[in-house]
Amino acid sequence: MKKFLENIGNASTTAFFDGKKLGHNVNAAAYILKDGTINVYLESNGIARYFAGKKTFANVSEFEDWKGSISENKELFLAAIESFGATTAF
């Protein structure tokens, strides 16, 4: 079982993955699992795009460290989307 943790940013943006349009409201969404691990998925309009893969973190601390490391020079929501290999309209 997984429980929604947070949207990483609030990206009302168009994103593309492997040249295909994902949708207009694309986010990286984090879910915490029963064992405390965290999975992050690329979602479009609230629907996980599993073909983009997932990022797994052992705990909240590791997850927070990752968020800090990817957003040093860029807004977090863009950095999170791009960390899956997607591009945005920005």
Report on this model:
It is globular and about 35 Å long. It is 20% helix and 41% strand. The strands form 2 sheets. Strands 1, 4, 5, 6 and 7 form a 5-stranded antiparallel β-sheet that branches. The protein has helices at residues 60-70, 76-82; strands spanning 2-8, 15-17, 20-23, 26-33, 38-44, 47-48, 54-57, 87-88. It has one domain: Viral Envelope Glycoprotein, domain 2, CATH 3.30.67. The N and C termini lie far apart (34 Å). It is built from 2 helices and 8 strands. The chain has 90 residues and is of the alpha+beta class. The longest helix has 11 residues, at 60-70.
Poorly predicted parts: none
Number of helices: 2
Largest β-sheet summary: 5 strands, antiparallel
Q: Which class in CATH terms?
A: Alpha Beta
Mean pLDDT: 90
* The CATH architecture: 2-Layer Sandwich
| Shape estimate | globular
Helix percentage: 10-25%
Strand content: 35-45%
Number of domains: 1
Radius of gyration: 12 Å
Count of DSSP strands: 8
Helix-strand string = EEEEEEEHHE
CATH level 3 topology? Viral Envelope Glycoprotein, domain 2
Secondary-structure-based class equals: alpha+beta
**Roughly how many Å apart are the termini?**
34 Å
SSE layout and pairings?
Blueprint: E1 2-8, E2 15-17, E3 20-23, E4 26-33, E5 38-44, E6 47-48, E7 54-57, H1 60-70, H2 76-82, E8 87-88
